[in-house]
Amino acid sequence: MLNATMPAPCVPTEADAIDDHALVRAAVGGDTLAYERIYRRHSPRVYAVLWRLCGGQAARAEDALQEAFLQAWKALPGFRFDSSLGTWLHRLGVNAALMELRANAAWQACDAGGEGWDSVAALASVERCAGTTLDLERALDTLPPRARAVLVLHDIEGWKHQEIATQLQMAVGSSKAQLHRARGLLRARLGETA
């Protein structure tokens, strides 16, 4: 059984970047062990953001991770190191998760109306034991999918609203509104005052 907590991503070093060049060349040449090393080095960081985008659902995050690395395997011969390998893999992972979220019927249903607001408000009003604090990750999981995606991409991953709007196929203003909504819902969920 998988642990429901998100793994800590590893931070690549300069030596890793140099090694990535050699690993990419070897993998493109057919060395599957080199590709396995690429996967082991970069998958924890990619998985961490996918886990958040998928609302803490490990199975969905793993599916998106596998899809991203399958796409990477196919596209690796064309990779030119315009960005770091980690950044490229990260972007492939986010794209895979967002495509899965867009395809999911719940994606549209949760954002259709005030339904998401009501469920979060009900969760926030539940009586809690004294001294119990809600984990930010669990609170993040309660957000409607689009609001969660915008918050994760903007506040955690550092994307600009234009990039988010392009990826989520929405207007820049909608991205900003979703971010404001997500922050407000998080504050309500965590019991903070604005």
Automatic annotation (TrEMBL):
Residues 38-105 form the RNA polymerase sigma-70 region domain. SUPFAM superfamilies: Sigma2 domain of RNA polymerase sigma factors (SSF88946), Sigma3 and sigma4 domains of RNA polymerase sigma factors (SSF88659). Belongs to the sigma-70 factor family. ECF subfamily. Residues 135-183 form the RNA polymerase sigma factor 70 region 4 type domain. InterPro entries: RNA_pol_sigma-70-like, RNA_pol_sigma-70_dom, RNA_pol_sigma70_r2, RNA_pol_sigma70_r4_t2, RNA_pol_sigma_r2, RNA_pol_sigma_r3/r4-like, WH-like_DNA-bd_sf. This is RNA polymerase sigma factor. The keyword Transcription regulation applies. It comes from the Bacteria. The lineage of its organism: Bacteria, Pseudomonadati, Pseudomonadota, Gammaproteobacteria, Lysobacterales. CDD domains: Sigma70_r4. Keywords: Sigma factor, Transcription, Transcription regulation. PANTHER family: RNA POLYMERASE ECF-TYPE SIGMA FACTO (PTHR43133), RNA POLYMERASE SIGMA-70 FACTOR ECF SUBFAMILY (PTHR43133:SF46).
